[in-house]
Amino acid sequence: MLGLFISFEGIDFCGKTVQCGLLQKSLDAAGYPVVALREPGGTKISEAVRHVVLDVDHSAMSARTEILLYSAARAQIVYELIQPALAENKIVIADRFADSTTAYQGYGRKLDLGFVRRVNEFATAGILPNVTFFIDVPVRAAAERQKNSGRSVDRLEGEAALFHERVRNGYLAIARESSDRFITIDGRQTIEEIASQIRKHLSTKFSLNIADSK
User: Fold this and answer.
1) C-alpha R_g of the chain
2) Contact by Cβ (8 Å): 93, 37
3) Is residue 33 a contact partner of residue 2, using CB atoms and an 8 Å limit?
């Protein structure tokens, strides 16, 4: 099946970016045309917005400014990459999409969820992923991974644990509301166990013939 939109979601350091890379490798090996992207980013304009919105020097940024910047970056990536790729029957893999805004700015920043949904619909031109893999890990486990990574954190990653708890609870709520699209996976499993579950689901639901990522 082509013309497929797959997104990955979860709190920071849940392991979703690794899984995006492994899935792309498996799909490439199987001969499928793939477009992989990250949010915010993916295009020249969106990467410029990413630099602004994640810069730790921008601590004065308001929640309203934040959601509009994220949405602007998303609108550009939809227009420039996602819509053309789907029209060409390619498989799109997105490291975050509109559900991130619902979780982070809606639940995390406590913005009105009705407003967040309207902004998301406008920015995405009504496009939704066919399937979303939510890699779920407890906030404490994610914090330990961040510590062990040794890298500096961006403006959102550096928020207090209570913020990330609200974000995770938001994801859990979204997963319940969108159970037809969301696949929740325990992110405390090994990388290969998670990757195997993802491949199995895609093979079963969308009849994809996916090779191992090794």
Assistant:
1) 16
2) yes
3) yes
Structure-block tokens of residue 53: 């919105």
pLDDT digits (tens, 9 = 90+) for 118-128: 999 999 999 99
Question: Running DSSP on this structure, what letter comes out for residue 76?
Answer: H
pLDDT for the residue numbered 33 = 96
Predicted local confidence at residue 210, as pLDDT: 87
Match 């799909």 to its residue by tokens.
27
Map residue 144 onto helix, strand or coil. helix
Q: What is the pLDDT of residues 9-47, one digit of tens each?
A: 999 999 999 999 999 999 999 999 999 999 999 999 999
Which domains are assigned to the chain?
Answer: 4-206 (3.40.50.300)
CA–CA separation, 168 and 116 (whole Å): 17
15: phi then psi, degrees, rounded to nearest 5: 105, 5
pLDDT tens digits, one per residue of 157-176: 999 999 999 999 999 999 99
Closest CA to 98 of 52, 56, 54, 67: 67
Question: Residue 39: which of 96, 124, 102 has the closest Cα?
Answer: 96
- Paired sense of beta strands 34-38 and 4-9, if any: unpaired
